[in-house]
Design brief:
By secondary structure, the chain is mostly helical. The protein is 79% helix and 0% strand.
């Protein structure tokens, strides 16, 4: 079983990898904007050390699909 400390960075990397896919699709620009916003918030949350918010942003990042 993995910890949140291991899984959250993996999820951040996965969503970053999705950005070029969504940027290439005209209708995907809105989704890419949402992803970028979530990634910025994820970085700030990690720096804050708020575990509850880390769980919440992890679940949000997981909701982005290819």
């Amino acid at each position: 079983m993995s910890s949140l400390a291991e899984e959250l960075p993996k999820e951040i990397a996965r969503v970053q990898d999705l950005l070029p896919i969504y940027d290439a699709i005209p209708a995907g620009v809105f989704a890419a904007t949402l992803m970028r916003d979530a990634l910025k918030r994820a970085a700030a949350i990690i720096m804050s050390g708020d575990v509850v918010e880390m769980i919440r942003i992890y679940e949000e990042l997981k909701s982005f699909k290819a």
